[in-house]
Amino acid sequence: MTADDRGPEGAEQVEIVEVGPRDGLQNEATVLSVGERVELIGRAVAAGVRRIEAVSFVNPRRVPQMTGAEDVMSEVRGEPGVSFIGLALNRRGLDRALAAGVSEVNVAVPATDGFCTRNQGCTVDEMLDSVAEMDRELAGTGVPLSVTVSTAFGCPFDGEVAPERVVEVVRRIADTGAVEVALADTIGVGVPAQVRDLLRRTAEVAGGRTLRCHFHNTRNTGYANALAAVEEGVRVLDSSLGGFGGCPFAPAATGNIATEDLLYMLHRSGLRTGVSLADAAALGDWMGERLGKQPPAYLGRAGAFPA
């Protein structure tokens, strides 16, 4: 088995879902143009990323960083072998996503009412009802649905989240046609023991659906959590180039785990991602230049090893 900067050839694969164009940008003071976001996505594809959370179909008055979602999709859709994910939080967002030609639809369902009412203007039960409605709308379209359970490890408003609560949300999601369920540490409070426990519990009710994980490094536990998830059998992880990101409706929810730092850990652990470490690090720096700030990622500063 030989190694390159995309991971050891022939090794087991971990799929990277690049969320930089959406989650990475939605909390930044600098708003990138449609052209810059299209370039970011194109460079990520060139680096080897094959699933990208490209856009969010939310109210642009609430999240101006996501203005022009349809324009972005018109430029990037149709790329062979690449899946472009659009985030939708309600029926209107879903209609926009389908009209724009997304490859996949992702819906976020918070595990807590405190976060759900502030972020999405409804209770968790009401949001789960909306997911069921959107699932029915997607029937026959050929567009797969994934659901992200946000605040699965802790809530900025309701505090600790009981694992039984997350399990019940996943159980309700399993009643739909969703093909994938993501557990998200929206505010970066989780630890590896919690990751292992929650993954084991939710696997029992997910009905064989793919489990994905989304971690933030707010308290410097994001990469340990990602490795714990991989050790539990998770083979799909979200990350953001440069380590940018955070939720504008969650106080102090900074920093997705950085794609380049995650790649380094996975590749050195004997896993393959198919994403170029060097290209990802360069792209994280590119984002930093446009956002006018130092990327939180470390790999761009320290460099790969061996050099």
TrEMBL record:
Domain Pyruvate carboxyltransferase: 14-281
UniProt keyword annotation of Lyase present: yes
Entry GO MF terms: hydroxymethylglutaryl-CoA lyase activity
One Pfam family here: HMGL-like
Highest taxon of the lineage: Bacteria
Family under the similarity heading: Belongs to the HMG-CoA lyase family.
Name assigned to this protein: Hydroxymethylglutaryl-CoA lyase
Taxonomic source organism: Nocardiopsis terrae
Origin organism lineage: Bacteria, Bacillati, Actinomycetota, Actinomycetes, Streptosporangiales
